[in-house]
Amino acid sequence: MRSLNPAALLAIACIALAACSSQGGSSSPSSASPTPRPGGAKQNLVFTGPAAGTVIEATTQCQVFTPQNQLNFALTGKLAGQDLMLNIHVAGGYKGPGTYPIGSLLDGAGEVRLQAGSYAGASSSGAGTLIIDSDGKSGSLDSDLSGGEHVKGTFRCDQVQTG
Predict the structure, then answer these.
(1) Is the dihedral of CA 75, 19, 6, 123 positive or negative?
(2) Is 86 helix (H, G, I), strand (E, B) or coil?
(3) Pairing of the two strands 160-162 and 53-65
(4) Which of 11, 19, 81, 140 has the smallest CB count inside 10 Å?
C-alpha cells in the first residue's frame, strides 16, 4: 500500500477542516456544505515539469475562513490520466479579491500544493503570484513548484463557502 506524502496529507486536512467548519460540527447533512457538482467547474491550468498536462475540468471545494483571514481552494480531477489534487491556500492575510504573493506556508503568503500521480510538490518563497478575481470564486495563478514543476492559468470554483 502506498502512503501519502506530507503535502497530500496537509491538503486533505485542509479539505476536512473546510467541510467540518461549513457544517458547524454537525453530523447531519446540510445544504450549505460544499458539494462538488458532477462534471466539475471549468479550469484552464497548464502544468509543465514532472507532472505535465492541462486541466480543463475539476471538482472544487472552496472555502473562505473570514475570522482567520484564510482562503482554501481545493481542485480535484485528472492530469494526463492521473488523479490530481491542487490546493491553493492563503494561510493569513486574506482580504478578498486581489493579488497575493505565492510562497511557502512559513511566508504567510499564498501557497500552492500539487499531488498528481507520483508527483507531489509545493511552492516555496517567491514562487509566483495568485490573483483572486472580483467575484471571489475565480482567479489565476502563475507559480513554480518543487522539482521543476510549474503551473499557470485560470481556475474557477463552483461555489465558495464562508465561515
Answers:
(1) positive
(2) strand
(3) parallel
(4) 81
Distant-in-sequence contacts of 66-74, Cβ < 8 A, 24+ apart: 66/162, 66/163, 67/163, 68/92, 69/93, 69/94, 69/95, 70/94, 71/132, 72/14, 72/15, 72/17, 72/18, 73/155, 73/157, 73/160, 74/11, 74/14, 74/15, 74/18
Cell for 147? 522539482
State the total domains in the chain.
Answer: 1
Cell of 35: 458539494
Of the pLDDT bands very low, low, confident and very high (cuts 50, 70, 90), residue 31 is very low
Does residue 6 form part of some domain? no
Whether residue 25 lies inside any domain: the answer is: no
Print the domain residue range for 96.
39-162
Do the domain assignments include residue 34?
no
Residue 157 maps to a domain: yes
Residue with cell 511566508: 107
**Highest mean pLDDT: which range of 30-39, 100-109, 123-132:** 123-132
